[in-house]
Write a sequence for this structure.
């Protein structure tokens, strides 16, 4: 029996399907692999379009790392989120420069990496697959330095990426810029911030600094009108350390909030009015 007003059809027995884009590149950056995960509904509902989740450090996206595939399957079956296309963008040996480096005349930088996602990867994904391409249907999530990359994507390409996941952010390499990115950029439709209380077991001061930075991001978001528990999610995870498996242990909660479709249209309209778009 159909559920009135449902945003999705009943879960299909088919399996998700993976496709690979090889040697994706932009001038000044190393080429990389991009893996696209199509949900089972992509094949069983050929007229349907799907929201998209972009993931930094794509090698760690799956069951041996962040467990995004497992979590999305579970959340979709429970009808807490819609089926999503997942685009996992691999890092390279220049990860630190690409996720945190300042622009230079030549060579990798965060600016060039952000352009790679917004101007190369996303247009190619939208041209190849049945996506819902608007910012309210386009999420990006990053962990550690990847969280820093997500903040700057929201600043430089806020018209493209509307849902921003910031998990265990390591922002001290560009702290003032990261805070300014949230302070001055276009507000996300939805945002999630989390941090462990024991991220760096060998450095109590370092762990404390990460909590301080996460709280600073939360304060800025709230000062600009985001509401915790509505369009802003925040969590300090007691005892959580720094590592991919730690995010995997809480990824269900992260995605359930970040990808929740219920308030997206209303929030997107409100933000457009605020920005004058």
């Amino acid at each position: 029996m159909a559920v009135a007003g449902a945003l999705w059809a009943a879960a299909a027995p088919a399996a998700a399907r993976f496709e690979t884009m090889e040697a994706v590149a932009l001038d000044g950056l190393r080429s990389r692999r991009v893996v696209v995960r199509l949900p089972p509904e992509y094949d069983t509902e050929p007229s349907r379009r799907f929201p998209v989740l972009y993931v930094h450090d794509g090698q760690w996206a799956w069951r041996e790392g962040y467990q995004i595939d497992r979590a999305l399957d579970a959340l979709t079956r429970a009808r807490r989120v819609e089926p999503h296309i997942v685009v996992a963008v691999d890092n390279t040996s220049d990860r630190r420069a690409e996720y945190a480096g300042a622009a230079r005349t030549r060579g990798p930088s965060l600016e060039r990496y952000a352009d790679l996602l917004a101007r190369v990867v996303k247009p190619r994904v939208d041209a190849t697959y049945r996506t819902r391409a608007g910012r309210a249907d386009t999420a990006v999530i990053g962990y550690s330095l990847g969280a820093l990359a997500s903040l700057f994507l929201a600043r430089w390409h806020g018209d493209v990426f509307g849902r921003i996941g910031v998990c265990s952010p390591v922002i001290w390499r560009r702290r003032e810029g990261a805070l300014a990115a949230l302070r001055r950029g276009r507000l996300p439709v939805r945002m999630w911030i989390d941090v462990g209380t024991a991220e760096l077991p060998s450095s109590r001061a370092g762990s404390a600094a990460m909590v301080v930075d996460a709280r600073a991001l939360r304060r800025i978001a709230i000062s600009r009108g985001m509401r915790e528990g509505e369009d802003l999610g925040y969590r300090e995870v007691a005892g959580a350390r720094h590592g991919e498996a730690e995010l995997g242990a809480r990824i269900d909660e992260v995605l359930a909030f970040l990808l929740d479709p219920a308030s997206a249209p209303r929030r997107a309209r409100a933000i457009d009015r605020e920005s004058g778009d």
